[in-house]
Amino acid sequence: MNKVEHIGIAVQDLEKANLIYTQILGTEPYKSEQVTSEKVITSFFQCGESKIELLAATDETSVIAAFIQKRGEGLHHIAFSVDDIEAEMSRLKQAGFTLLSETPKPGADNKLICFVHPKDASGVLIELCQEKTSF
Length: 135
Prior knowledge:
The protein is an alpha+beta fold. The chain has 3 helices and 8 strands, in the order βαβββαβαβββ. It has a single domain (about 5-135), classed as 2,3-Dihydroxybiphenyl 1,2-Dioxygenase, domain 1 (Roll). It has an 8-stranded mixed β-sheet. Strand 2 and strand 3 form a beta hairpin. The mean pLDDT is about 95. Its EC number is 5.1.99.1.
């Protein structure tokens, strides 16, 4: 694992959250993207070498909607950049971690992604992400 790539924050109202984080970080989001397969819309803020990803549900059946209903707004996941997502998935699976998908899937910001179940990571959802162009 290379570095913390981004921290994902689940929000109810993306416009309102964009305003809040623009004030906090002193910069506007550089990108907004809808991920239809995950039923979310995202906003990304650059913060040094890392990013903040705001995630809002576009459908009441999305995992973000369920997360907010159960836990409220807040920290959703921590994402780590990797050079070879399949190798990292294999390594973690062999070490006994539960992966939420068998293969990498497309994510926001030109990434391939996979999540590690929070029960295996002290209650924190961990995301592995690899640039799509780096393989």
